[in-house]
Amino acid sequence: MRQFWITFFGSVAGVIAGALLTMLLLGFMLAALIASAAQQASEGRSARASGGDLVLQLDLRRDRLDQPSRSPFAFSEPLSVVDIVTTLQRAQSDDRVRGVFIRANEFGMSPAQAEEIRSALARFSGSGRFVIAHAQGFEGTGITNYFAVSGADEIWMQDTSAFSAVGLASESLFLGGLFEQFGAQAEFLQFHEYKNAANTFTEDGFTEAHLEATTSFLNAILNSAMTASSEDRGMDASTFRQRIVSGPHSAEAALQAGLVDQLGHPAAAREAALERAGGNATVQDIETYARNLAATPPATRGPVIAMVSGQGSIITGSGETGFGGGNVIGGDAMADAIDAAAAAEDVRAIIVRVDSGGGSAIASDQIWDAVVRAREAGKPVIVSMASLAASGGYYLAAPADMIIANATTLTGSIGVVFGKVVVEGALDRIGVNIEPVSVGGEFATAYSAQTPFSESQRAAIEAMASEIYDDFTGRVAEGRDLPITRVREIARGRVWTGAQALELGLVDRIGGLHEALEAARELAGIDADETLRIRRYPRQPTPMEALQQLFGLTAEGAQSASRLQALLELPEVRAALEARELAGVRGVQMRTDERVPR
Asked: Is 526 helix (H, G, I), strand (E, B) or coil?
């Protein structure tokens, strides 16, 4: 009886504590929402009250998503690349905005992000406004951070820093030797030799095909960045390349080589930007400026272009990952969004923005079908590829009217992979025994991590993967109007850059979101002087809607989610989870290595 009352009152106390913690959590969230709204209102009043000229400040040192986060609680996240492009576009017609002051990234960024931001800045500068960039050194060895700002009117660099941007590097993880040491066995089927996503588990180093493909796309990215940056700096390509690869340079040497224009601290560069803007100008973060634009009533006239966005691994279902979850593309969610855009009478064209290394073959095919049906409904579909649109990310793009990729986008990887890691031997070494029991057909244990594939299981899986590979290449051939023999020749799981893919006929144009909008205007027959209205599908949930979804979350669950999210941000944990995700996935996959060089 005593134990009963202890358990009873302990449960009651736990419920009360849980309720209090839940109320506290929701209180913090509501306070954050109110504070955010008040800050935005204050910023809007300040901007209107000042009435002066503005210099927008863009900080490229912060990691950015390609597209806005679906989470309404992401208060502190910087603008996505898509939002930077659209905000700079709108700023070009704002008489108050005189220029942009950039805090350059010191250590590296995604090549395609750098390329898209560089292009947006070039259009902004072409509107008669200035661009001044300041770097506290280009300390990373990759050229991408310099590539993003090479077209600035002035590049400042702190005189105590270094210019180490000499090329491009990538690192690949191989666990084959580790698995061998611990008695684990990686069993994967890959179609074909360039499909390297499983090499992490099966190899202890580069295969010949893996190294060839990696070296090829790294060289292609470097050449694209070198060519564009040399033009920005007014140098011939060979001279510029020699000055870059001969680094690292001191700040003074970088100035003498013409790689930067001024030496000084951030305060001096910011002051130079204000002087160029005029006496009454103020600096405003681009995030603040974008929030003020969002508070402005949207245009009610003009043709509508639908924007369907997806980033992350492709999975079946809605793609909802819960509180603090990462970004994924749900087959249901993206297909439904495309269907809704196709059904809207006032939508003239659909842009599908993709940033994904692939995932589920079934979900990729589901989105492919939605793209096909949208075209059959008379809506032009344009795919805009971000940093990565490969494997399943390319599959869903194949039937589009037009595919647009940045020169440095990683795409292609037309192939499939399936397998598992058998841990029976590793568990035996530590005295753990897991014995599977099954009834019915022999294939029932095919996904078990305790037993290797039997001959019949391997044959069945190979047949399924082969069929999906044939479907993949067939649909690429149909969508791209290429002979199937040519598709199979250039496929084999190989990753290409956007520039390479253009030559192969896998994409139609080089460019980013801006070029996708222009293509939508072209295919929909919209006049150049008409203002486009961009409508996002699906609609972003409001903070209150998200709060309502959280009411069922216990305080213990919320606290655990918060701790887990912090843990998941650790680089070593993220790498381990990526490996575990591929090892434990069910079904045939269209997936490529998502590590983008920086």
From this structure: coil
Q: Where are the alpha helices (DSSP H) in 127-207?
A: 144-149, 176-182, 199-202
pLDDT at 36 over 60: no
34 CB-contact burial (10 Å; exposed 0-12 / middle 13-18 / buried 19+): exposed
Closest CA to 113 of 74, 79, 161, 71: 79
Tell me how far the alpha carbon of residue 298 is from its chain's centroid: 27
Alpha helices in 127-236 (DSSP H): 144-149, 176-182, 199-202, 208-232
Q: What is the pLDDT of residues 151-168, one digit of tens each?
A: 999 999 999 999 999 999
CA 351, CA 516: separation in Å to the nearest integer? 7
Cβ contacts of 62 within 8 Å, gap of 6 or more: 78
Segment 245-250 shows an average pLDDT of 97
Position 3 pLDDT exceeds 60? no
Mean pLDDT check: name the lowest of 70-74, 213-217, 231-235, 591-595.
Answer: 70-74
Per-residue pLDDT tens digits for 377-431:
999 999 999 999 999 999 999 999 999 999 999 999 999 998 999 998 888 888 9
Q: Output the CA torsion sign for 21, 24, 29, 30.
A: positive
Tell me if 124 sits within 8 A of 131, measured CB to CB: yes
DSSP, residue by residue, 61-76: TS---SS--S-TT-TT
d(CA 472, CA 397): 11
Do the beta carbons of residue 398 and residue 501 sit within 8 Å?
A: no
The residues that bridge with 535 in the sheet, in sequence order, are 306
Which residues have C-beta within 8 Å of that of residue 166, sequence separation ≥ 6? 141, 143, 244, 245, 246, 247, 248
Q: How far apart are CA 241 and CA 33, in angstroms?
A: 49
Question: 459: pLDDT confidence band, cut at 50, 70 and 90?
Answer: very high
Number of residues in the chain = 598
**Contact status, residue 317 vs residue 332, Cβ threshold 8 Å:** yes
Q: What share of the chain is helix, strand, coil (3-state, %, to 5)?
A: 50, 20, 35
Whether the CB-CB separation of 393 and 357 falls below 8 Å is answered with: yes
Looking at every residue in the chain, the average pLDDT score rounds to 86
Residue closest to 379 by CA, chosen among 333, 343, 405, 331: 343
| CA distance to 276, 374, 409, per residue, from 351 (Å) | 38, 11, 17
CA distance 557 to 452: 37
Q: 3-state DSSP call for residue 253?
A: helix
Q: How much is the pTM?
A: 0.86
Structure tokens at 125: 């500068």
Residue 43 pLDDT > 50, yes or no? no
Mean pLDDT, range 548-573, rounded to an integer: 52
Phi, then psi, of 260 in degrees rounded to 5:
-135, 165
